[in-house]
Amino acid sequence: MGVVAMKVYVGVPRGFCAGVVRAIDLVEIALERFGAPVYVKHQIVHNSYVVDSLEAKGAITVEDVDEVPEGANVVFSAHGSPPEDFEKAKTRGLKVIDATCPLVIRVHNEAIKYDAEDRGIILVGHQGHQEVKGTMGQAEMHLVDDGGELDLPEWDADKPVVVLTQTTLSVDDTLRSIESIQDNFSDVIVRNDLCYATTNRQDTVKELTDVSDVVLVIGAQNSSNCNRLREVAEARGVPAYLFNGPDELRAEWLEGAEHVGITSGASTPEELVQAVIAAIEPDEVIPIGQPEGDITFVLPRELRD
Ligand code: SF4
């Protein structure tokens, strides 16, 4: 890009989490085993580069189970699905491969358990996000969207309550929402539903802001965890930009910057990060953060070899 002498600090960990790797593997295994086309309900993960590569191999992404032809194979996305989608699939004779991340299924199971115990369930999450739709289908619950004013349920203050969360929220904002719920109800169980990938990538972006003039987050605009990374950097006073890859990189973001932090969300392929670094042509690339170890999630029994 021909800019001034520049150091790039690259976040560790960054990019794919175990749930995303598993979901992509499941679509690829389904394509190999059953042949194209394999339908995918909702973007398998929120990254159009990933979706396009799978579609080039024969995957077809749809938004609704009704769009899948009767009897076809369909993968349900990593974000999780409400029970009614499984029922619809059954009625249509579809073979469902469920790519819901095990950490999202854990939240579903918590909802079912606490509903059976008659606790009021408050879900902290973002209205309309695919994961929230899946979790809200599991039981009656009240959604508190921490993106704006907290809209708490008008329940008696002594009603037993449990707080569940979307897995990909801001660690700091979620803490504030939980504190506010605890101020309003006397018997509150708080489940720690933010996933390891969300927490670790936000910790890393905080470290990046300590050494960077600007932070570049590589990922999709509709990815919740990518947006939170950008916000975490901005909240610490460092300009931050979220974009898909080298084609969208703008020279003015780097004007005067000698220290550039780069990271990526849980659904962003590493090749896009490397392509952005190559486009910047830094003098030095320095990793910042601590590796999170080799975390993998098992595949469903019927698709394990
Ligand atoms: S971001 Fe977290 S919850 Fe979402 S797929 Fe990855 S590990 Fe699972």
Helix-strand layout with pairing:
Blueprint (H helix, E strand, L loop, with lengths): L6 E6 L5 H17 L3 E4 L6 H9 L2 E4 L10 E4 L6 H9 L3 E4 L3 H15 L3 E5 L5 H7 L5 E3 L16 E5 L5 H14 L3 E3 L5 H16 L2 E5 L5 H12 L4 E4 L15 E6 L5 H11 L3 E6 L16
Parallel strand pairs: 1-12, 1-13, 2-3, 2-4, 4-5, 6-7, 6-8, 8-9, 10-11, 10-12
Helix pairs in contact: 4-5, 7-8
Polypeptide structure, described:
With 305 residues, the chain is an alpha/beta fold. The chain has 3 domains: 7-16 and 196-289, 4-hydroxy-3-methylbut-2-enyl diphosphate reductase, catalytic domain (Cobalt-precorrin-4 Transmethylase, domain 1), CATH 3.40.1010.20; 18-101, Rossmann fold, CATH 3.40.50; 103-190, 4-hydroxy-3-methylbut-2-enyl diphosphate reductase, catalytic domain (Cobalt-precorrin-4 Transmethylase, domain 1), CATH 3.40.1010.20. Helix content is 36%, strand content 19%. The chain has helices at residues 18-34, 48-56, 83-91, 102-116, 130-136, 171-184, 196-211, 224-235, 270-280; strands spanning 7-12, 38-41, 59-62, 73-76, 95-98, 120-124, 142-144, 161-165, 188-190, 214-218, 240-243, 259-264, 284-289. Strands 11-10-12-1-13 form a 5-stranded parallel beta sheet. Strands 3-2-4-5 form a 4-stranded parallel beta sheet, sandwiched between helices. Strand 10 (214-218), helix 8 and strand 11 (240-243) form a beta-alpha-beta unit. Helix 4 packs parallel to helix 5 (130-136) and helix 7 packs parallel to helix 8. The termini are far apart. The model has no long low-confidence stretch (mean pLDDT 96). Bound molecules: iron/sulfur cluster.
